[in-house]
């Protein structure tokens, strides 16, 4: 059989990888030692020119299916890893057939939960991770995606202005429909409840979980947050015709949660005294879309919220509320944002994403100001941050040196 | 179409099952029969039901496999039974209890293998029992059930070790133990083997089937793989487009497919299906008459669909029978498989020319025909399946 590589971006260097060797036996020289979640399949990170790819050895038909599913998810604009290609027709030197490989791009600055927990976590961090996972699940369900294997291992986390943003990494079991039934959503939540509790109990057994964190409570909190968010986004509201302001109020609330309302159904009852509204199409990324339109910056939702707040403050401070929004945004970008992110020494740029650094500098300024009892200029905050805070941070563009275990349950016999 | 009635009071072992039968259930437990009674599910926005008036009665302790092509409604049926999918019409019963409107946790069913990740820092016992912890079962009870399950699975010596110390096969049994400790009335399994490689699949298939028989717990198992269905199930239910095609023992299903769809779906290599003209006293295969009784042929029209399994054919010595041009000969020692094609027009008295139709036959391996040969094949007596060409339904017995 001949080697067959399907990829959206043909890259000849792909051909140089040792496809005729089982992935488990690939020489170190090809590999990047990055942490992974628990998985049944063999997964390795591979250096290819300037980028790092994740390679998963998996049955041929499932590889194709997962590749197509990840492409669909990207098209729907839900946060997931980016599919890069599929390799079929692998054989060893003796002609023994090998499983296919699914290739995705390594998600930069992403952290598997096990790596996060092996650092010293602030107590509320676990809560924030669960929040991020709940948001991800709601977004997937809004698009009609049934995951079938919701777990912390199948999620990657990126820092997002003090919070986290979650990304889907394993779409193997997923199904895409126009709309999910309540039963399908419940099924996913059921799976989430068991998996997350199991993963946290495992961390507890390994001594990585703080004493007072209860795996069951934490996993139950994901479900609770999911329901709260789902109801806020899709629930029906009824009110008196006179209370029309409540329509705007609902939209504002959804914006606040980071969602745009693209379609809202509004009906009056027969007597005409009551209005019933139901959001029909809601779209995540309210703040990040607005920031992208104004500045061209493509960042996380919370980072965008933070940056937009700073832009508002800048607009007020320079007394330009009457000016064209885009022109002010452009000035803010050139005078505030870029000077800060560019001031980071090259050797420290791998520590955090630029937007996250900007967020941290703003935080740092707040602490300095509070300590000093007066406003601190951003230049001073930046200087102090780069000198004292940033160098102490771990490298997160590609976290190194964390030992995570692979736990192949099914795919091999010893 | 037939369905087997529930047999209260015994753990049923239907034909085709293997493995020892060690009743684990205690005598006075409620009968866990499962009944789909005209159960229907139509998704909002979908013009047709995804499960349409499903009727199956599953006996206590039976292993029933739901099988069919992608999208036929297998997972939906399973979720309906689990209480995760709304039922728009009909009812679902477990034992005598109508559970149609009960929540999942009130049904005493367990979805199995949705996750079989093992946790590296936890002991084997904890890996098996953690879902019970979530369900709020007390510690002593968990330990008791874990120990029982470990005994069944030969894992007792490993209970306090970490899964890393186990062999692959043992790890897999830990995953099974996770389901067993829940000791539900009904196990539900949705494609648990779909991402295993071929060898492991066969091994695990056998393990699950024999374990189920030992436990005697009613099980509904979903797969799209008919080989898996036929080797594991006491009975097999074939679904297509949300409609039950047939529910029978593997043997009966193989020997008496109820319609053309089942005939083509069950069996590997697949049954040969061709349209042939009806003659006096039977159907005509290019000069060879296959007898079919007159009453069975009443009202079937000019043509019927004839089905013959590859192993039910013989080489014809005269030039009558099904003419086949041999493309590939696969020699397997005692037998040889012939992959070729037949000209539909040679079989049909009238009607348009459907061109070459693929054809597979098993013949004596000692003197197989050669590639390029033109041969004639006759069905062995009594080994043909006749279907109404219009409706696709089986004609006669
Ligand atoms: N593109 C990627 N970027 C970063 N990390 C990745 C990427 N792809 C995979 N990983 C890491 O590898 C781990 C295993 O990948 P994945 O979940 O796809 O494997 P799996 O064997 O299918 O898992 P499961 O046992 O859940 O089916 C993930 O938990 C994640 O940490
Ligand atoms: N949320 C939904 N909305 C509309 N149609 C749906 C929805 N979920 C499933 N369906 C449809 O219902 C039918 C049955 O789906 P189901 O998942 O039960 O099939 P299946 O036999 O399990 O398929 P597979 O083997 O691919 O898992 C399919 O046609 C599917 O597209
Ligand atoms: Mg995974
Ligand atoms: Mg997977």
List the helices and strands and how they pair.
The complex is a heterodimer of chains A (414) and B (397).
Chain A: E1 4-7, E2 43-48, E3 51-58, H1 60-75, E4 83-88, E5 100-105, E6 110-111, H2 113-118, H3 125-142, E7 145-146, E8 155-160, E9 163-168, E10 175-176, H4 182-205, H5 215-234, E11 237-240, H6 245-256, E12 259-268, E13 274-284, H7 286-295, H8 301-317, H9 325-342, H10 354-372, H11 378-389
Helix pairs in contact in A: 3-5, 4-5, 7-8, 8-10, 10-11
Chain B: E1 34-41, E2 51-58, E3 63-67, H1 74-82, E4 89-94, E5 97-98, E6 109-112, H2 124-134, H3 139-152, H4 168-180, E7 186-190, H5 198-215, E8 218-223, H6 226-232, E9 235-240, E10 243-248, H7 250-255, H8 260-265, E11 272-279, E12 282-285, E13 288-291, H9 294-297, E14 303-308, E15 313-315, E16 322-332, E17 335-343, H10 344-347, E18 356-364, E19 374-379, E20 385-388
Parallel strand pairs in B: 3-8, 3-9, 6-7, 7-8
Antiparallel strand pairs in B: 1-2, 1-4, 4-5, 9-10, 11-12, 11-14, 12-13, 14-20, 15-19, 16-17, 16-19, 17-18
Bound molecules: adenosine-5'-triphosphate (2 copies) and magnesium ion (2 copies).
């Amino acid at each position: 059989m001949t080697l067959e590589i399907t990829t959206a971006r043909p890259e000849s260097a792909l051909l140089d990888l040792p496809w005729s060797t089982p992935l488990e036996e690939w020489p170190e020289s090809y590999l990047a030692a990055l942490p992974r979640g628990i998985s049944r399949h063999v997964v390795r990170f591979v250096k290819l020119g300037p980028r790092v790819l994740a390679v998963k050895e998996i049955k041929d038909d499932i590889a194709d299916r997962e590749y197509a599913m990840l492409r669909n998810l990207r098209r729907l604009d839900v946060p997931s890893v980016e599919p890069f290609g599929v390799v079929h027709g692998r054989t060893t030197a003796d002609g023994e057939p090998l499983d296919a490989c699914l290739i995705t791009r390594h998600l930069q600055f992403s952290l598997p939960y096990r790596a996060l927990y092996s650092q010293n976590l602030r107590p509320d961090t676990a809560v924030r991770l669960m929040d991020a996972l709940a948001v991800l699940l709601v977004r997937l369900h809004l698009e009609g995606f049934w995951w079938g294997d919701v777990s912390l291992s199948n999620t990657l986390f990126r820092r997002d202005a003090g919070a986290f943003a979650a990304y889907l990494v394993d779409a193997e079991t997923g199904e895409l429909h126009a709309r999910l039934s309540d039963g399908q959503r419940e099924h996913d939540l059921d799976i989430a409840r068991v998996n997350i509790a199991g993963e946290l109990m495992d961390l507890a057994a390994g001594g990585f979980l703080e004493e007072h964190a209860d795996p069951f409570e934490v996993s139950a909190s994901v479900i609770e947050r999911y329901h709260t968010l789902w109801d806020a986004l899709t629930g029906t509201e009824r009110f008196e015709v006179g209370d029309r302001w409540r329509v705007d109020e609902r939209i504002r609330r959804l914006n606040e949660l980071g969602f745009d309302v693209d379609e809202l159904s509004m009906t009056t009852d027969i007597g005409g005294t009551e209005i019933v509204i139901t959001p029909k199409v809601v779209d995540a990324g309210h703040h990040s879309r607005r920031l992208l339109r104004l500045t061209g910056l493509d960042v996380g939702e919370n980072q965008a919220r933070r940056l937009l707040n700073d832009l508002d403050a800048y607009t007020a401070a320079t007394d330009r509320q009457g000016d064209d929004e885009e022109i002010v945004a452009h000035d803010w970008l050139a005078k505030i944002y870029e000077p800060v992110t560019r001031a980071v020494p090259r050797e420290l740029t791998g520590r955090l994403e630029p937007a996250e650094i900007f967020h941290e500098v703003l935080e740092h300024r707040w602490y300095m100001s509070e300590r000093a009892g007066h406003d601190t200029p951003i230049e001073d905050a930046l200087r102090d941050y780069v000198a004292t805070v940033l160098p102490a941070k771990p490298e997160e563009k590609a976290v190194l040196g964390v030992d995570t275990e692979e736990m192949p349950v099914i795919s091999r016999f010893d | 179409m037939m369905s087997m009635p529930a047999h209260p009071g015994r753990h049923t072992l239907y034909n085709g099952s293997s493995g020892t039968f060690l009743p684990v259930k205690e005598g006075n437990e409620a009968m866990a029969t499962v009944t789909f009674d005209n159960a229907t599910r139509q998704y909002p926005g979908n013009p047709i039901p995804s499960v349409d008036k499903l009727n199956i009665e599953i006996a206590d302790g039976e292993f029933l496999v739901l099988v069919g092509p992608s999208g036929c409604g297998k997972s939906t049926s399973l979720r309906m039974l689990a209480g995760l999918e709304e039922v728009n019409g009909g009812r679902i019963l477990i034992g005598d209890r109508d559970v149609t409107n009960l929540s999942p946790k009130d049904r005493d069913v367990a979805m199995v293998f949705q996750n079989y990740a093992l946790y590296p820092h936890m002991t084997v016992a904890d890996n098996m029992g953690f879902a019970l912890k979530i369900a709020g079962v007390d510690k002593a009870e968990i330990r008791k059930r874990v120990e029982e399950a470990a005994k069944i699975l030969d894992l007792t010596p490993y209970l306090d070790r970490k899964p890393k110390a186990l062999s692959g096969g043992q790890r897999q049994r830990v995953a099974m133990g996770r389901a067993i400790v829940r000791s539900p009335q009904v196990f539900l399994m949705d494609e648990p083997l779909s991402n295993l490689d071929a060898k492991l699949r066969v091994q695990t298939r056998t393990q699950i089937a024999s374990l189920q028989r030992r436990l005697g717990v009613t099980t509904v198992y979903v797969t799209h793989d008919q080989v898996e269905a036929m080797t594991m199930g006491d009975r097999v239910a074939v679904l297509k487009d949300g409609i039950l095609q047939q529910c029978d023992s593997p043997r009966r299903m193989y020997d008496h497919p109820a319609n053309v769809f089942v005939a083509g779906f069950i069996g590997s290599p697949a049954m040969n299906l061709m349209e042939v003209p009806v003659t006096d006293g039977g159907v005509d295969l290019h000069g060879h008459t296959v007898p079919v009784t007159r009453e069975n042929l009443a009202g079937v029209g000019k043509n019927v669909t004839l089905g013959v399994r590859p192993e039910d054919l013989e080489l014809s010595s005269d030039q009558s029978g099904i003419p086949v041009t041999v493309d590939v000969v696969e020699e397997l020692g005692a037998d040889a498989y012939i992959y070729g094609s037949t000209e539909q027009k040679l079989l049909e008295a009238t009607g348009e020319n459907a061109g070459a139709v693929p054809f597979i036959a098993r013949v004596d391996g000692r003197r197989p025909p050669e590639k390029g040969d033109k041969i004639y094949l006759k069905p062995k007596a009594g080994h043909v399946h006749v279907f109404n060409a219009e409706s696709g339904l089986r004609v006669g017995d």
